[in-house]
Amino acid sequence: MFKSRLFILCILVFSASVAYGYHSEMQAKRSSLKAVEPSPIQFSDQLDDEYSPLQVALDRIGIKVVKNTEICKQNNAVGWHQANSGEIILCTDRMLETATNQSSYQDLLQSTLAHEAAHVAQFCRRYKRGIPTVGVDMDKLKALPANVQNEIKISTRIGDAQLSPALEWRVEAEGFYYENRPSEVISLLEQYCKA
After folding, report:
1. Is residue 5 over pLDDT 80?
2. Which one is predicted more confidently, 32 or 50?
3. d(CA 164, CA 147)
4. Where are the alpha helices (DSSP H) in the chain?
5. What is the distance between the alpha carbons of residues 71 and 64, in angstroms, rounded to a whole number?
6. For the chain, how many structural domains are there in total?
7. Partners of 64 in the beta sheet?
8. 117 in a domain, yes or no?
9. Is residue 71 a contact partner of residue 77, using CB atoms and an 8 Å limit?
10. Residue 179 belongs to what domain range?
11. Is residue 83 part of a domain?
């Protein structure tokens, strides 16, 4: 009886030491992995003087700007206007993958904000008047550079089932058109989104 208790006690001690050793070994591996992982690049999200009023205009009409929601991963996007929740989603993690410095990151952040804010104005006009565009002349949209035209094609793959392909193209083209025109986007928001 004494030998069997001693045997059981030895097994328990051995098991406990193996478990502790495994736990300690895994902790050491995790620590070493953390030490080896590169630290992610971080850039400032501060908007410059030209784009700051756009954020204020969005706040005034109740549009929240949030970052890095699940939709960013689902659509491999840098920005999104989520009409049903009244949000603009900025996929800053995705932006960091393409930005090489603070300037390129800030340009992408700001142009994405203006692009999505233009979609907010389109949504307001569509909701109030049934017209899903803000009326940019078609010649101006067709004059957008070839790389932007390509981006429009990529962006329209996700699609709005309620719009024809031609109208969907126009909606997305207007977003690109307004990316570097924050003061004009503010005017659109004031025109179409105020109560």
Report:
1. no
2. 50
3. 23
4. 2-36, 52-60, 70-75, 92-98, 102-129, 138-142, 146-155, 165-177, 182-193
5. 15
6. 1
7. 87
8. yes
9. yes
10. 52-193
11. yes
